[in-house]
Automatic annotation (TrEMBL):
Pfam families: MR_MLE_C (PF13378), MR_MLE_N (PF02746). This is D-galactarolactone cycloisomerase. CDD domains: MR_like. Its cofactor is Mg(2+). InterPro entries: Enolase-like_C_sf (IPR036849), Enolase-like_N (IPR029017), Enolase_C-like (IPR029065), Mandel_Rmase/mucon_lact_enz_CS (IPR018110), Mandelate_racemase_C (IPR013342), Mandelate_racemase_N_dom (IPR013341), RHMD-like (IPR046945). Residues 332-342 have a biased composition (Basic and acidic residues). One of its GO terms (biological process) is carbohydrate catabolic process. The keyword Magnesium applies. Residues 149-241 form the Mandelate racemase/muconate lactonizing enzyme C-terminal domain. GO terms for molecular function: hydro-lyase activity; isomerase activity; magnesium ion binding.
Length: 378
């Protein structure tokens, strides 16, 4: 089998004026990402996603990957990650190289799964799961003034039993947002918070201690990703687990997080970390050092599908029959047709459980008509 074509497809969706949403760092209106379609000589098609702007992905693919990929056997995909670090030298660790690699890698795994008639998670090894616990990523900061209770009430109505909310604008407001979320979710639900790197260590520590009484499952990105000493300082001063990884790219950045014990949970984004091949390497490193793995998802339906397949394969180590922390996967609850409309059969997180597709490859079918509606290169 050989790859005969590689297409880069930028897509985007713009929120209406006045409806921007975001985190402690500010608001955004654009949902933008890039898909990659790979065709083979036997007619098999694979889909991948690069969580980066389309023009940058297209240029990176043309400059660094196309010649190597066209004519390649998709089963040789894991060699791409190795080569990205060494040829060309020094570029492999950059976010745009890793994002482009992610899309190609995911698409190749999709093809491999379809070729052998198995879902990707069965090929990645590790633990076999048929369902995951979805957690609602919600309670964003909004451009439009609205009650902070609305999004959490909607998540509970959908059946979510776990949720992550945005904080990071000051301890008093953080406490209010966490208290509100806990009251609506109930005492038994899992509640995570995301500071999006908006704090200095002492600010993060102050908030972490103030919200500890609300039983926080993890604090995500308390300080910027480029501040490892800040993570170290916070981890020494609080008991709540720390999580990070959405802004880290490739195995070597994650190795630093793991080896230096900066976090308790690593969160690779499958469309940025280097794809399924690198994510598997990251998961192996993490579980070897008894660090948890929970994928980050802020993607289209393709990136979500990759995250679901990956999460279903991650080892339960050190747990056996008794699993106190079920495998969770992030499910963004903001408006996003790139997630909801691109598939013939969209993912359904309602009811507190997310089914892992058992169809070959990623287990998804792209709605080509809907895809055309969101392309930005027409």
């Amino acid at each position: 089998m050989e790859i005969t074509d590689l297409r880069v497809i930028p897509i985007a969706y713009t929120l209406p004026d006045g409806e921007g949403l975001g985190d402690a760092r500010g608001f955004g209106h654009e949902r933008e990402t890039t898909l990659v379609r790979i065709d083979t000589d036997d007619g098999t098609v694979g889909w991948g996603e690069a969580f980066a702007p389309g023009r940058i992905v297209a240029s990176t693919v043309e400059e660094l990957f196309r010649d190597a990929v066209i004519g390649m056997d998709p089963f040789d995909v894991e060699s791409l990650a190795e080569r990205s670090y060494t040829d060309p030298y020094h570029f492999g660790g950059s976010v745009f190289v890793q994002s482009a690699l992610s899309a190609i890698d995911i698409a190749c795994w999709d093809i491999i799964g379809k070729s052998v008639g198995r879902p990707v998670y069965r090929l990645l090894g590790g633990t076999e799961r048929t369902s995951l616990l979805p957690y609602a990523s919600t309670m964003y900061y909004t451009e439009r003034d609205r009650p902070i209770t609305e999004p959490m009430e909607a998540a509970v109505e959908e059946g979510f039993t776990a949720a992550k909310i945005k904080i990071g604008t000051g301890t008093d407001e953080d406490i209010e947002r966490v208290r509100t979320a806990r009251e609506i979710l109930g005492d038994d639900a899992r509640l995570m918070v995301d500071m999006n790197g908006n704090y200095r260590p002492r600010q993060a520590i102050r908030t972490a201690k103030a919200i500890a009484e609300y039983d926080i499952t993890w604090i995500e990105e308390p300080v910027p990703p480029e501040n490892p000493s800040g993570y170290r300082e916070i981890k020494q001063r609080i008991d709540t687990p720390l999580a990070a990884g959405e802004a880290h790219y490739g195995r070597f950045e994650f190795k630093r997080l793991i080896d230096d014990r900066l976090v308790d949970i690593v969160q690779p984004n499958l469309a940025r970390c280097g794809g399924l091949s690198e994510a598997r390497t990251i998961a192996d490193m993490a579980t070897t050092e008894n660090v948890a793995v929970r994928p980050h998802v802020w993607n289209s339906a393709v990136g979500l599908a990759a995250a679901v397949q990956f999460a279903a394969s991650v080892s339960e180590y050190p747990h056996t029959r008794n699993i106190p922390d079920p495998m969770m996967v992030e499910f963004d609850r903001s408006p996003n047709p790139l997630r909801d409309d691109l598939l013939e059969s969209p993912f359904d997180p309602s009811g507190g459980s997310l089914t892992v597709p058992q169809e070959p490859g990623l287990g998804i079918e792209i709605d080509e008509t809907e895809l055309e509606a969101y392309r930005t290169d027409r």
